[in-house]
């Protein structure tokens, strides 16, 4: 094998190892409560506008969380480990030259019921009425929640299997 090819292969292997190591080092931990919770209360954070029915938003989100299959949905915050507060708003954005526009957004805030601490916030930009943009925002929000709730499982180190002597084939 030529020297150039060996150097190229070694450089590629080193770069791959360095990138993998850097990614593992830079990932921040997900709060333990999100990973281990079994029960969730869904709170209707409301809609600050008439364009989005807060009842529809709550129902759509409730159904989406139920379809995850990870959490038991409870009817009282005292019975839950986490509270998922879903809301819709249109805060003004980028006011320049006397004009501004709004950025419709769905927002999910995850609270720990024991400490009352906000653990995580997920924001997805949306169109105000149910339809393509709204459905996409709900879908994106649920994808993010899935990534938080179902992280890639790390294989636990298993002791090596007891080695048996090889069988003789002849």
Separation, N- and C-terminal Cα atoms: 36 Å
Write the element-wise H/E pattern from the N-terminal end onward: HHEHEEEEEEH
Fill in the CATH topology of the largest domain: Rossmann fold
The CATH class assignment of the largest domain is: Alpha Beta
Shape: extended
Number of domains: 2
Work out the radius of gyration. Answer: 24 Å
What's the number of helices?
A: 4
In round numbers, the mean pLDDT is 77
> How helical, in percent, are the residues?
25-40%
Strand content: 25-35%
| CATH homology group of the largest domain | TolB, N-terminal domain
| Order of neighbouring strands in the sheet with most strands | 2-1-3-6-7
| Biggest pleated sheet | 5 strands, mixed
The CATH architecture name of the largest domain reads 3-Layer(aba) Sandwich
Assign the structural class, choosing from mainly alpha, mainly beta, alpha/beta, alpha+beta, or little secondary structure. alpha/beta
Uncertain ranges: 18-26, 153-159
């Amino acid at each position: 094998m030529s020297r150039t090819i060996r150097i190229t292969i070694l450089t590629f292997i080193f770069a791959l190892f360095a990138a993998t190591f850097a990614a593992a080092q830079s990932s921040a931990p997900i709060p333990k409560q999100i990973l281990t919770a079994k029960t969730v209360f869904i709170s209707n954070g409301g809609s600050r506008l008439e364009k989005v029915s807060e009842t529809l938003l709550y129902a759509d989100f409730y159904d989406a969380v139920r379809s995850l299959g990870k959490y038991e949905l409870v009817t009282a915050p005292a019975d839950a480990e986490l509270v998922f507060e879903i809301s819709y708003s249109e805060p003004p954005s980028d006011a320049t030259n006397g004009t501004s526009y709004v950025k419709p957004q769905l927002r999910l805030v995850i609270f720990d019921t024991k400490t009352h601490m906000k653990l995580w916030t997920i924001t997805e930009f949306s169109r105000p009425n149910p339809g393509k943009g709204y459905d996409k925002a709900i879908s994106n929000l649920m994808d993010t929640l899935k990534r938080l709730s179902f992280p890639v499982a790390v294989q636990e180190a298993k002791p090596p299997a007891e080695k048996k002597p090889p069988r003789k084939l002849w």
